[in-house]
Structure formats: structure tokens, C-alpha cells
Protein 1
Amino acid sequence: MQDKYRLINFKILGDKRGSLISLEQNKNIPFEIKRVYYIYGNSENIRRGFHAHKKLQQVAICINGSCEIMIDNGKEKEIVILNSPNKGLLIQNMIWREMYNFSEDCILMVLADDFYDESDYIRNYEEFKEGVK
């Protein structure tokens, strides 16, 4: 399953003034970045996601706090904990994802290789499982 996702370690640049992480398309982000969004303020810790993408690939980075992401290729499920701003989770197409267990201070930023397109989403799990056969 790891051919459809992987953790990316970002280089931390810093000194006594603090730390800096640079995100660059087609360098440490393995695609052209066309969309950036972030999730925060999930004070009731409600699960999010519950979808896959037909074509879209993304990198999820927990820039503050922590959360867990369950990734599923239709046969196997794995849980990835994001709790450091220098780690990103590359999630390629046709991977079901659910985000949960958000810390109160969690800010989850997502970089995507395309603009929002509702027709790229698979929101029904049974339809997803049929699509990955």
C-alpha cells in the first residue's frame, strides 16, 4: 500500500531565531501546487474526510498540534499520526482517508495538485471499493 502514500520529512532550517520550513512544488512537494487549505478549530473532535479522489494527490501537514489519518486502499487500512510540522503525508489518488483525534490546537494544512472539483471525489465507500478492484 505504501506506493500510494508516504511520509515526507521536510528539512528544518533554523537557529536561535526559530525554525523555518520551505515547501516547494516539484521539489519537496512532488507536484505542482494548485490549492492550499487548512482545517482547524475542530473543538468537538468530529471525524472528517470520508472520501477518496479519482485523480487528485495531496500532501497533509499538521503545522500545529496533532491528528491521525486513517488511509485505506480498499484492502488494507493504516493509521498515520501527524504531530510535527516537518513531516507531510503524501496521499495519492484512490486512497480513502479519514482524519480524526484532532488535538485542540491542531492546524492541518493540505496542499493539492489541482483545484477543487466535486466530480473528482468518491464519497461512498462501497463505490470506492468497486473502483479500486
Protein 2
Amino acid sequence: MVAVEAMAAGTAPVASAHRAFPELITPGADGALLPRADVDALVDMLVDIADNPQGDRYGQQGRQTYQDRCPDAGISRLLEIYCFAVEPSGHLKDIAGRSIRPAFGALR
């Protein structure tokens, strides 16, 4: 969550390149990734960001990345998919267009 919150705040995240961070951060675009447990790489990265005016650009791009992926956009897209899948009768359709019953009752 720290990387996502940093992007939301317009701050470029700096993280180690493991777990979910490589999926969240695009190095050189909206943040920085460094080798896992490499303290020297972290120090070099922080000095480079402090000395480089691109740090602001990374923060701006991070904010844009967050807005593109924010939950509201995902929820809107999911609702579009559901509306496409639901017939006026309230039944769902499978990929072949056949009606199927919702597992937990009617959707409407």
C-alpha cells in the first residue's frame, strides 16, 4: 500500500524489486526499483533522485498512474461488464449467450 499511497500523493515510490512492487512501479517512469537488500543501491538511488530534477516528473507520472488504476475507474468498468452480461430479465449470460442463474439470488 505504501507505493500506491505515494503515487496517490504525487511522490515517486522507491522500492526493492520483489513481491508486488514490480507490478506497481514502472522504473524510470513513475518510480524506482532496486535490487533486494542492496543498501548501496538504495543510497545511490536516493542521492540520484535528490540531485535529479526528474524526481518531480516521476511523482507527476506516479499520480497519473494512480489515477489510471484507481478503484473508481475499476469499479466503473466492472459495472459496465455486469450491465453487458445481465439480461433485462435479471439472468446472467455465459460467454455463449446462454442464461445462467446467479449463485446468490437475483442481482436486481
Protein 3
Amino acid sequence: MVLPNLFQYSDYREFLKDCYATNKARNANFSYRYLSLKAGINSSAFFKYVIEGKRNLSKGTLLKACHALGLKDRDAEYFENLVFFNQAKTIREKNLHFEKLTKLRGSYDVKRVEASQYAFYGQWYHSAIRELLEITPHRGDFRALAQTVVPGITPKQAQESVELMHRLGLIRKDAQGRWRQADPVLSSAGDPLAHQTVANFQIKMLDLAREAFDRWKSEERMMSSTTFSVSKESLDLFRKKIRQLRSELLELARLDEKPSRVYQLNLNLFPLSKAEVP
């Protein structure tokens, strides 16, 4: 059976879909029934339902799928963790399999992630340092740069952060040798593994927000919370308004000619009840 490069995939259903399409193109007689027979699964439409998201793979059917596809050793281990990553219900479960997937991807993962700029979200302080470079003239004193970040990081971490952002095209040196921001678009769309990296970044920022209650005086921070009940239509409007507010604040920050400090803004909107209350 001809298979696409499994390690290019972050969604196992897409991998199965491409496996089917590739083999169908080479052999018109190739079918979902054939795959099921080879896997020892009674339902002829089983793989069709899995690809369409109507069925999940269990531990048992996952092993049968590996047998049918001829996946062994590292490939089989990657596929197994990819299945459980995609089907995980909690961040803890996702991170467990996310770590295994990134290790199994090896050097391929490093190249792909960095090219997509997702490595930027791997550590919370990359974004802080990127903003600091617009405030403080940095020309190579990584100890001073590290001491400016709160909570503190090491000079080595500061240096690795600058080197990473330069490699990703997020910062550049000006004519005076000072590091400044470049202006690429950062996006996390399209890759579940990248989404997990961004989710972990956001969780860390929420942890820092919690620590801010003890770290900063009330006049140096702003924390508020509100609970309300709304319809689905109003929720859609709320989401639109929040995105609009975030865009407006980003534009105000961009137009600020004399920034003096780096701030983090977290906006959180989530349910506190079931979808339908009797």
C-alpha cells in the first residue's frame, strides 16, 4: 500500500483520507471494504465513517488500522499518539501525546514549526522580549535584557529568544545595530499541533495573570470579572465585540510613540452552565 509521509500530518483523519485517495488513484478497485477486510473489521464503511469524523478509533481498532496500513515501529507509535492527541478531551491528555509527537517528529518537526513561526509560542517570554526591543535599545547585553523581564529569565534564555525571533524573521537589526521588531503576520491557523502550542502559551499567560495578584500592586494592574446570561445570538455579538476591542487596543499600542513598559492582556469568555437550562 502506498502511503503519504505520516510525519507531515497533525490530523490522523486527513492522513487516512489521503491514504485512501492515493491508493484509489493507483487502483480503481481499492475500496473502504478492502481496508476493513485487511484490518479485520466487519463494517465495510468503518474507515469512511472515521475519515468523516462520525466514528473514532479505539485502542483496538487503532492497532487494526496500523496493520491494514502497514504501519510499524516509529510510524505506528506516531500514528497511535496522533489518534489519541486528536481525540483527547482535556489539555492534560493533549499535552501528554503532544510531547510524544514532537519527539517522534524529530528534526522534521523543528524545521516545520520554525518555518511556520509557531516556535514563537513555545515560551511565554518570546512575546515579552519582542515588545521590550521596541522600548530598550538592545545591542547584545543579554544579561540586562533578561533582568528586564518579569518574572525573570536567564541571559541564555534571552539570547536564545533573540536568535529564534531573528531566525523566524520577527526581529531585525537597524543601521545602528539595535534589534527592532520586523512586521510579519503571526498566525496559528491550520495545524492542530500548532494550536496546542498556542494553547499552552495562553495557559501560561493565565498562570502569570494569577501570579500578578501577588506580584504587582493594584494600581499597576487591572483585573475584573463579570457573570451574565445571554442567548446564542448575543454570544456571537459578544465575540465580535471582543475581537473588535482587541484590534482597537493593538492599533493604539502600534501608534504609541513612547512605550515604557510591556503589558499582557487576557480576555476570557467561557460558559458556566450547560447549553440548555430547563
